[in-house]
Task: inverse folding
Protein backbone atom coordinates (compact mmCIF):
# COMPACT_ATOMS: atom_id res chain seq x y z
CA UNK A 1 0.00 0.00 0.00
CA UNK A 2 1.37 3.41 -0.99
CA UNK A 3 2.17 6.19 1.46
CA UNK A 4 -0.71 8.30 0.09
CA UNK A 5 -3.33 5.56 0.15
CA UNK A 6 -6.77 7.00 0.85
CA UNK A 7 -5.69 10.57 0.15
CA UNK A 8 -7.17 12.92 -2.44
CA UNK A 9 -4.83 15.42 -4.10
CA UNK A 10 -5.45 18.44 -6.30
CA UNK A 11 -2.47 19.23 -8.53
CA UNK A 12 -2.26 22.29 -10.78
CA UNK A 13 -0.18 22.28 -13.95
CA UNK A 14 -0.52 18.50 -14.05
CA UNK A 15 -0.49 17.89 -17.79
CA UNK A 16 3.28 17.90 -18.34
CA UNK A 17 6.72 18.31 -16.85
CA UNK A 18 7.00 18.34 -13.07
CA UNK A 19 3.23 18.41 -12.64
CA UNK A 20 2.73 15.21 -14.61
CA UNK A 21 5.59 13.55 -12.72
CA UNK A 22 3.87 14.49 -9.44
CA UNK A 23 0.50 13.15 -10.64
CA UNK A 24 2.03 9.87 -11.76
CA UNK A 25 4.01 9.42 -8.53
CA UNK A 26 1.03 10.29 -6.32
CA UNK A 27 -1.13 7.77 -8.19
CA UNK A 28 1.54 5.11 -7.74
CA UNK A 29 1.51 5.87 -4.01
CA UNK A 30 -2.26 5.38 -3.78
CA UNK A 31 -3.70 8.89 -4.08
CA UNK A 32 -6.78 9.91 -6.02
CA UNK A 33 -6.13 12.97 -8.16
CA UNK A 34 -7.80 16.03 -9.54
CA UNK A 35 -5.32 16.83 -12.30
CA UNK A 36 -5.62 20.47 -13.35
CA UNK A 37 -4.62 21.84 -16.74
CA UNK A 38 -5.32 24.99 -18.69
CA UNK A 39 -6.68 23.36 -21.85
CA UNK A 40 -8.75 20.28 -22.58
CA UNK A 41 -6.81 17.46 -24.21
CA UNK A 42 -7.90 13.96 -25.21
CA UNK A 43 -4.33 12.78 -24.85
CA UNK A 44 -4.15 14.08 -21.28
CA UNK A 45 -7.45 12.45 -20.40
CA UNK A 46 -6.24 9.15 -21.83
CA UNK A 47 -3.07 9.31 -19.74
CA UNK A 48 -5.21 9.91 -16.65
CA UNK A 49 -7.41 6.95 -17.55
CA UNK A 50 -4.27 4.85 -17.89
CA UNK A 51 -3.13 5.96 -14.43
CA UNK A 52 -6.47 4.98 -12.94
CA UNK A 53 -6.33 1.56 -14.52
CA UNK A 54 -2.72 0.91 -13.58
CA UNK A 55 -2.88 2.03 -9.96
CA UNK A 56 -6.54 1.51 -9.02
CA UNK A 57 -7.17 5.18 -8.18
CA UNK A 58 -9.37 7.79 -9.81
CA UNK A 59 -7.71 10.59 -11.75
CA UNK A 60 -10.02 13.33 -12.99
CA UNK A 61 -9.15 16.24 -15.28
CA UNK A 62 -10.04 19.77 -14.17
CA UNK A 63 -9.63 22.56 -16.69
CA UNK A 64 -9.12 26.25 -15.95
CA UNK A 65 -6.82 29.12 -16.87
CA UNK A 66 -4.99 30.44 -13.80
CA UNK A 67 -4.87 33.84 -15.47
CA UNK A 68 -8.68 34.06 -15.34
CA UNK A 69 -10.03 34.61 -11.81
CA UNK A 70 -13.62 33.68 -12.59
CA UNK A 71 -12.64 30.56 -14.54
CA UNK A 72 -10.41 29.42 -11.68
CA UNK A 73 -13.14 30.04 -9.12
CA UNK A 74 -15.74 28.24 -11.21
CA UNK A 75 -13.63 25.13 -11.73
CA UNK A 76 -12.62 24.85 -8.08
CA UNK A 77 -16.20 25.43 -6.94
CA UNK A 78 -17.23 22.37 -8.96
CA UNK A 79 -14.50 20.32 -7.30
CA UNK A 80 -15.54 21.47 -3.83
CA UNK A 81 -19.18 20.64 -4.58
CA UNK A 82 -18.16 17.00 -4.96
CA UNK A 83 -18.00 17.00 -1.15
CA UNK A 84 -14.87 14.87 -1.17
CA UNK A 85 -12.03 15.80 1.19
CA UNK A 86 -9.02 17.46 -0.38
CA UNK A 87 -6.10 16.20 1.66
CA UNK A 88 -3.30 17.60 -0.50
CA UNK A 89 -2.97 20.69 -2.68
CA UNK A 90 0.07 21.07 -4.93
CA UNK A 91 0.33 24.56 -6.44
CA UNK A 92 2.62 23.54 -9.28
CA UNK A 93 1.41 25.51 -12.31
CA UNK A 94 3.39 28.53 -13.42
CA UNK A 95 4.84 30.41 -16.36
CA UNK A 96 8.42 31.43 -17.18
CA UNK A 97 9.62 34.82 -18.32
CA UNK A 98 13.09 36.19 -18.98
CA UNK A 99 13.75 39.92 -19.00
CA UNK A 100 15.73 42.60 -17.24
CA UNK A 101 14.13 45.40 -15.22
CA UNK A 102 14.20 47.78 -18.15
CA UNK A 103 13.07 45.18 -20.70
CA UNK A 104 10.10 43.75 -18.80
CA UNK A 105 6.84 45.39 -19.91
CA UNK A 106 4.56 46.17 -16.99
CA UNK A 107 1.75 44.26 -18.68
CA UNK A 108 3.96 41.16 -18.79
CA UNK A 109 5.07 41.67 -15.20
CA UNK A 110 1.46 41.74 -14.06
CA UNK A 111 0.67 38.57 -16.01
CA UNK A 112 3.59 36.61 -14.52
CA UNK A 113 2.82 37.80 -10.98
CA UNK A 114 -0.86 36.96 -11.45
CA UNK A 115 -0.26 33.42 -12.70
CA UNK A 116 2.71 32.53 -10.49
CA UNK A 117 1.57 34.20 -7.29
CA UNK A 118 -1.89 35.79 -7.12
CA UNK A 119 -3.65 32.81 -8.72
CA UNK A 120 -1.80 30.40 -6.42
CA UNK A 121 -3.15 32.33 -3.44
CA UNK A 122 -6.66 32.25 -4.89
CA UNK A 123 -6.46 28.45 -5.22
CA UNK A 124 -5.00 28.14 -1.73
CA UNK A 125 -7.73 30.30 -0.21
CA UNK A 126 -10.51 28.18 -1.68
CA UNK A 127 -8.94 24.83 -0.88
CA UNK A 128 -7.65 25.76 2.56
CA UNK A 129 -11.16 26.74 3.69
CA UNK A 130 -12.22 23.15 2.98
CA UNK A 131 -9.13 21.84 4.76
CA UNK A 132 -9.92 24.01 7.77
CA UNK A 133 -13.31 22.33 8.11
CA UNK A 134 -11.57 18.95 7.90
CA UNK A 135 -8.96 20.07 10.46
CA UNK A 136 -6.25 18.56 8.28
CA UNK A 137 -4.44 19.13 5.02
CA UNK A 138 -1.14 19.69 3.28
CA UNK A 139 -0.24 22.42 0.80
CA UNK A 140 2.94 22.25 -1.27
CA UNK A 141 3.87 25.30 -3.33
CA UNK A 142 6.27 25.15 -6.25
CA UNK A 143 8.88 27.82 -5.68
CA UNK A 144 12.23 28.11 -7.42
CA UNK A 145 15.84 28.80 -6.61
CA UNK A 146 15.24 31.71 -8.98
CA UNK A 147 13.23 33.30 -6.19
CA UNK A 148 16.03 32.83 -3.68
CA UNK A 149 19.15 34.03 -5.45
CA UNK A 150 19.55 37.45 -7.00
CA UNK A 151 20.27 37.15 -10.70
CA UNK A 152 19.94 39.55 -13.59
CA UNK A 153 17.42 38.92 -16.34
CA UNK A 154 14.66 37.21 -14.35
CA UNK A 155 12.84 40.08 -12.66
CA UNK A 156 9.26 38.89 -13.20
CA UNK A 157 9.77 35.17 -12.65
CA UNK A 158 12.12 35.51 -9.68
CA UNK A 159 9.90 38.06 -7.97
CA UNK A 160 6.80 35.90 -8.41
CA UNK A 161 8.49 32.83 -6.94
CA UNK A 162 10.00 34.84 -4.07
CA UNK A 163 6.51 36.09 -3.22
CA UNK A 164 5.07 32.56 -3.27
CA UNK A 165 7.81 31.23 -1.00
CA UNK A 166 7.31 34.09 1.47
CA UNK A 167 3.58 33.36 1.39
CA UNK A 168 4.38 29.73 2.18
CA UNK A 169 5.89 30.77 5.51
CA UNK A 170 3.00 33.13 6.26
CA UNK A 171 0.39 30.49 5.42
CA UNK A 172 2.16 27.88 7.53
CA UNK A 173 1.75 30.07 10.61
CA UNK A 174 -1.85 31.04 9.93
CA UNK A 175 -3.10 27.56 9.00
CA UNK A 176 -1.19 25.47 11.53
CA UNK A 177 -4.02 26.00 14.04
CA UNK A 178 -6.24 23.92 11.76
CA UNK A 179 -3.87 21.00 11.32
CA UNK A 180 -2.67 22.20 7.92
CA UNK A 181 0.99 22.05 6.95
CA UNK A 182 2.34 24.37 4.22
CA UNK A 183 5.73 23.93 2.57
CA UNK A 184 7.43 24.72 -0.71
CA UNK A 185 9.89 23.04 -3.03
CA UNK A 186 12.47 25.23 -4.77
CA UNK A 187 13.76 23.31 -7.79
CA UNK A 188 16.93 24.16 -9.60
CA UNK A 189 17.23 23.82 -13.36
CA UNK A 190 14.99 20.94 -14.41
CA UNK A 191 14.71 19.07 -17.69
CA UNK A 192 11.29 20.35 -18.77
CA UNK A 193 9.94 22.63 -21.47
CA UNK A 194 9.97 25.46 -18.92
CA UNK A 195 13.60 24.74 -18.08
CA UNK A 196 14.43 24.99 -21.77
CA UNK A 197 13.40 28.67 -21.75
CA UNK A 198 16.64 29.57 -19.98
CA UNK A 199 19.34 30.67 -22.49
CA UNK A 200 21.91 27.95 -23.20
CA UNK A 201 24.81 29.97 -21.80
CA UNK A 202 22.93 30.59 -18.55
CA UNK A 203 21.99 26.92 -18.26
CA UNK A 204 25.57 25.79 -18.78
CA UNK A 205 26.82 28.26 -16.17
CA UNK A 206 24.26 27.07 -13.61
CA UNK A 207 24.96 23.37 -14.19
CA UNK A 208 28.70 24.03 -14.05
CA UNK A 209 28.37 25.71 -10.66
CA UNK A 210 26.35 22.88 -9.10
CA UNK A 211 27.81 20.06 -7.05
CA UNK A 212 25.81 17.65 -9.21
CA UNK A 213 26.67 18.70 -12.77
CA UNK A 214 23.38 18.06 -14.53
CA UNK A 215 19.77 19.20 -14.65
CA UNK A 216 17.21 17.59 -12.38
CA UNK A 217 14.67 15.19 -13.82
CA UNK A 218 10.99 15.96 -13.18
CA UNK A 219 10.80 12.74 -11.15
CA UNK A 220 13.48 13.98 -8.74
CA UNK A 221 11.44 17.11 -8.01
CA UNK A 222 8.27 15.03 -7.68
CA UNK A 223 9.93 12.86 -5.02
CA UNK A 224 10.59 15.96 -2.91
CA UNK A 225 6.94 17.01 -3.28
CA UNK A 226 5.84 13.51 -2.26
CA UNK A 227 7.94 13.74 0.91
CA UNK A 228 6.35 17.06 1.91
CA UNK A 229 2.85 15.84 1.01
CA UNK A 230 3.10 12.63 3.03
CA UNK A 231 3.20 11.80 6.72
CA UNK A 232 6.94 11.27 6.35
CA UNK A 233 7.21 15.03 6.84
CA UNK A 234 4.60 15.26 9.59
CA UNK A 235 6.81 17.59 11.66
CA UNK A 236 7.76 19.86 8.74
CA UNK A 237 5.95 23.10 7.95
CA UNK A 238 6.95 26.58 6.81
CA UNK A 239 9.96 25.13 5.01
CA UNK A 240 11.32 25.86 1.54
CA UNK A 241 13.15 22.72 0.41
CA UNK A 242 15.80 23.47 -2.20
CA UNK A 243 16.25 20.65 -4.70
CA UNK A 244 18.97 22.16 -6.84
CA UNK A 245 21.88 19.78 -7.18
CA UNK A 246 23.96 21.71 -4.66
CA UNK A 247 23.71 25.01 -6.47
CA UNK A 248 26.54 27.31 -5.40
CA UNK A 249 26.57 30.49 -7.46
Result:
Amino acid sequence: MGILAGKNALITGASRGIGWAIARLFAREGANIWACASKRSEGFEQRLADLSEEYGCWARPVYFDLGDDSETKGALTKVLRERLPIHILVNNAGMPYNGTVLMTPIKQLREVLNVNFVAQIQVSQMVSRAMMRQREGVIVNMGSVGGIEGREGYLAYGSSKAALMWATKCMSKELSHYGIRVNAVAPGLTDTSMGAVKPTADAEMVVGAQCIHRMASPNEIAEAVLFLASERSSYVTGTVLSVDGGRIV
In short: The beta strands are 8-11, 32-37, 59-63, 88-91, 137-142, 180-187, 240-243. The chain has one domain: 8-243. The domain at 8-243 is CATH 3.40.50.720 (Rossmann fold).
